[in-house]
Amino acid sequence: MPTDEQMNDIVDTWLESTNDSPHSAPLTVARVMARLPQTRQRRTWWPLSLRGRAAVTTPDTSDKVAGSVTKAAVSGRSPTLTGSTRSMLSPVKIVTTGAVLAAVSVFLIAQPFDRADDPAPAIQVPATESGPLIEARQLHTATALGDGRVLVIGGKTPLDGPNTGALATAEMWDPVSGDFAPAGSVTAARYGHTATLLSDGRVLVIGGYGNDALWLDTAEVWDPATGEFTSAGSLNVGRHAHAATLLPDGRVLVTGGYGGEWEWLSSAEVWDPETETFTPTGDLSEARWEHDAVALPDGRVLIVGGAETITPRTLLEAWNPETGEFAAAGELEQGRTSHSTTVLADGRVLIVAGSPGGEPWEVASVEIWDPATNAVSAGDALDFARSGHTATLLPTGDVLVVGGTRSDAIEMPAELWDAETDSFEVADMPTQQYGHTANLLPDGRVLILGGLVSDQESSSAAELLDPEAALE
Question: Residues 20, 1: contact at Cβ < 8 Å?
């Protein structure tokens, strides 16, 4: 750890500079430090853990600062750290953050609110447990908002046929009460849609499967300022089971799916937030649905898995925002659908489990894609084969795999991928859902919502999982 004098020099360099950072990709957080107001003149620093909730205590006061870090990135000229912090005695706020000296360290600086200029809100303690969803649902979306709330949209209930049961309702989860409240309705009931958090805090809802229409070509935007949904344009091709990916410039790339003229789709479109219109872009090399599309640090979008009919795709494709075209980006050893794809802190991509399209219907295999070489290598396999699970990147850089289904069981423990060892270990968090959603909360916990349960009914269950506690 740097000495106090070295720390002060580094921070002063950051505070006094305009910081024309050359970095444009997300940064790996090496260290987070917190300085308490009481010791400002003494200029002493303490480490703030990256493992979700953490606390630091000064030698001469009982005051503590607790916080969590969710993301570090460079945006334009100003490196920023996204997270949360609060004082046990008086509220504090983040006033300056930065990636200093070529991202050697990242610092979190807290000071008391100036109550005259910026009145401090009362300290709000996160809920210790969650109430159930108002409506049971599966194939819904759940979007974590910047303020800790989670917006749940649409879905289907019960499992009684392809053309019925689509929901138009939305619900909002409150991180303080742990309860859900109605949050309006989309114009068209839908499931198998996508919901993307935009750069301006709005949520874009695209496509899906409806009750009256088969696959929808409509898009809607939820505005946090009004709490309402409004129309946001129409797709060139109606689709469901597609993927939607937020691009660095605020646009959204929509790929594949099933729809159009009763076909698996290779087409792709880009939604522009300024005009709220969709424009065709280059086509995928291979049509696919139920695939993943993840944004890479270099601006490209990687397409992983999916299938045409029941044949899973092995070809990886990457969309280039400069050309608007897709190019081959390697090959999976195992084609798969209902898998998970996670971009790791170091830029690699972790591809976990899923269905191979035939017996056995679920696999435990794991593959890791390297963006520098497009090479795919085998990773440490899960203890439990599964499909229809979720995978959540934690503030620690670890990945939490939850739920899923397999032919011989539905309840299975969660598994945690360790970023330091590149291996999985079983976590003491059994869950019964599959086809559910999982959202990382600002305090490092994970909110699991809905899905299907063993009796083939949609679920209203909501669980708060603490990855740290499960491994203690």
Answer: no
Domain boundaries, the chain: 4-112
Q: Is the CB of residue 316 less than 8 Å from the CB of residue 339? A: no
CA contacts within 13 A on the Cβ side of 114 = 3
Does the predicted model carry a pTM greater than 0.85? no
Residue written as token pair 């129309």: 231
Check residue 472 and give its pLDDT.
54
Residues (pLDDT < 70) of the chain are: 1-125, 158-164, 213, 409-411, 430-432, 454-456, 470-472
**Closest Cα to residue 458, out of 222, 130, 240, 164?**
164
| Cα(444)–Cα(442) distance, integer angstroms | 6
Contacts with 168 (C-beta within 8 Å, 6 or more apart), sequence order: 154, 185, 186, 187, 188, 189, 190
